[in-house]
Amino acid sequence: MAAIEVQGLTKAYGDTLANDHLDFSIERGEIFGYLGPNGAGKSTTIRQLMGFQAPTEGTARIFGHDVRNDRELRQAKARIGFLPGEPAFTPSVTGAELLDYQAALKGDERRDELLDIFTPPLDRQIREYSTGNKQMLGIVQAFMHDPDLLIMDEPTSGLDPLKQEAFHAFLREERDRGKTIFFSSHILGEVRRVCDRVGIIREGRLVTVEAVDDLLERGGKQVRVHTAEPVTEADFDVDGIVGFEAEGRQAQFTFTGDYNDLFAALADHRLVDIEIDEPPIEEVFMHFYGGEE
Ligand SMILES: Nc1ncnc2c1ncn2[C@@H]1O[C@H](COP(=O)(O)OP(=O)(O)OP(=O)(O)O)[C@@H](O)[C@H]1O
After folding, report:
1. What separation in Å is there between the alpha carbon of 14 and the centre of ligand 1?
2. Is the CB of 39 under 6 A from ligand 1?
3. What's the pLDDT score for residue 293?
4. What's this model's pTM, rounded to 2 decimal places?
5. I need a labelling partner for 51 at 20 to 30 A (CA). Which of 36, 80, 184, 237 fits?
6. Is 38 a pocket residue for ligand 1 (Cβ < 6 Å)?
7. Range of the domain at 245
8. Is the pLDDT of residue 15 over 60?
9. Same domain, yes or no: 11 and 74
10. Are 19 and 140 contained in the same domain?
11. Closest Cα to residue 171, out of 198, 190, 145?
12. pLDDT tier at 292, thresholds 50, 70, 90
């Protein structure tokens, strides 16, 4: 049985179809990234999975429990750790008080271990917390009762790069312990670093669900070349070049071809610098999905 099974999930807000007949499933023990630009419909899916909003049509099952049914939803939620997009903690309580309260409800067998990695200032009132500190408190409360499934809405927003890295390493360890992790993001690099599979949503529709390795292989790389002499597109007569732009002695493009061909073409030029990076998420969208946005 899948950890999450989404079937025809549809949510309409007036004329806006925030989720349009979504179908996907998430296997136990995988890290699944739910990727899409702002307003694509990621939070809408998460709110329905958590039972905060009822689907207009379709449903989702979590460990077999139908989220439209209150009793089944409660059974599902007993196994879920949840981190909302913008955690709304009571501002007048301290971090420690919040965790104590959550512990009384669900348990906290992993609290100390989590607080070694994520370090919110527990003695201070939450009203004094920075965005990153709130996020860390949210991460601790989501994981501290050792749930089987984590559902998180943009969990790294507000975390500094070192904490982001610590969080990614932690997620991989949790996956290796058999936990299932579903999180939304609009950052391709993050999904690339940590996820096994990705679902890409755009304007309410799922455009692909696939292994991250396969997506990146098809998505190509962003190449920037700085040469000693001016270059034009004719200097790069190589298969797999998309979106070529050149200005003076600099050229940039997305490359999905064979690097040997590219370097053979570059051999005719004196190179000053070359950068090869992951493409920004917009490039992946435009390359594969039309890019009419
Ligand atoms: N309560 C609501 N009432 C009306 N429209 C809504 C409501 N919530 C979301 N929407 C609309 O539904 C669409 C999807 O929004 P959603 O918040 O799910 O996107 P998202 O992918 O989570 O975006 P972000 O990355 O910006 O959080 C957007 O067009 C949004 O304006």
Report:
1. 12
2. yes
3. 42
4. 0.84
5. 36
6. yes
7. 220-289
8. yes
9. yes
10. yes
11. 190
12. very low
Last residue of a domain, one of 162, 184, 211: 211
Per-residue pLDDT, 101:
95
142 CB contacts (<8 Å, ≥6 apart)?
Answer: 81, 82, 83, 150, 152
* Phi-psi group of 178: left, alpha or beta (phi > 0 → left; psi -120 to 50 → alpha; rest → beta): left
Q: Of the residues 211, 244, 278, which one is the last residue of a structural domain? A: 211
Per the model's pLDDT, the better-predicted residue between 282 and 191 turns out to be 191
36 shares a domain with 12: yes
The CB of 46 under 6 Å from ligand 1? The reply is no
Q: Are residues 200 and 230 in the same domain?
A: no
| Nearest-CA residue for atom 2 of ligand 1 | 13
44 lines ligand 1 (CB under 6 A): yes
At residue 281, the pLDDT reads 59
- Judge if the beta carbon of residue 133 lies within 6 A of ligand 1: no
Looking at the structure of the chain, the number of domains it has is 2
Tell whether the model's pLDDT for residue 206 goes beyond 80: yes
Domain shared by 126 and 226, yes or no = no
Judging by beta carbons within 10 Å of its beta carbon (0-12, 13-18, 19+), is residue 293 exposed, middle or buried? Answer: exposed
Q: Which helix (H) or strand (E) holds 282?
A: helix 281-289
| φ/ψ (deg, to 5) at 94 | -85, 165
Ligand 1 pocket member 52 (CB < 6 A): no
Please tell me the predicted confidence (pLDDT) of residue 19.
Answer: 98
For residue 245, give the CATH number of its domain.
3.30.70
Atom of ligand 1 nearest to the CA of 14: 4
Closest C-alpha residue for ligand 1 atom 23:
39
| CATH for 38 | 3.40.50.300
Q: Cα(37)–Cα(15) distance, rounded to whole angstroms? A: 20
Decide if pLDDT at 266 tops 90: no
**Ligand 1 contacts CB of residue 60 (under 6 A):** no
Ligand 1 mean position, distance from CA 160 (Å): 26
